[in-house]
């Protein structure tokens, strides 16, 4: 049972932001910015590869509703939304979760994935590999 399942069960307290029968969002206890929030399905799903279409719809609705709450209440200028699937990608809790990071002009938070582009990839060969 993941730490998130323990939060859902009420065994561990959390600062809840939004909740439905299928989704829960709560403040991250190790925030990287003001309002850093996690959105999770209540069903224990390991990662994006195990996410079914039924859970997908409710999860996306929860992400959107939570983002709207954060934007409105914190007067955020933007929002980063991301998830890591698998240990190699940096997933540390094996329960699917999305990070919502409210952004503010001049906040200095570094999240630009294009700062370190890979230049030696043949896109034509990659495309062929992906569609064949």
How does this model look, in words?
Strands 1-2-3-5-4 form a 5-stranded antiparallel β-sheet, with helices on one face. The chain has one domain (3-131): HIT-like (HIT family, subunit A). The protein is of the alpha+beta class and 132 residues long. The chain has 3 helices and 5 strands, in the order H-E-E-E-H-E-E-H. The protein is 29% helix and 19% strand. The model has no long low-confidence stretch (mean pLDDT 94).
Mean pLDDT: 94
Query: In CATH's first tier, which class applies?
Result: Alpha Beta
CATH architecture name: 2-Layer Sandwich
Between the first and last Cα atoms, what is the distance in angstroms?
39 Å
How much helix is in the residues?
Answer: 25-40%
| CATH-defined fold name | HIT family, subunit A
The name of the CATH superfamily reads: HIT-like
Our Rg estimate from Cα atoms comes to 17 Å
Number of helices: 3
Note the topology.
Layout: H1 3-9, E1 16-19, E2 23-27, E3 37-41, H2 53-74, E4 78-82, E5 98-103, H3 123-131
Antiparallel strand pairs: 1-2, 2-3, 3-5, 4-5
Short account of what is shown:
By secondary structure, the protein is of the alpha+beta class. It contains three helices and five strands.
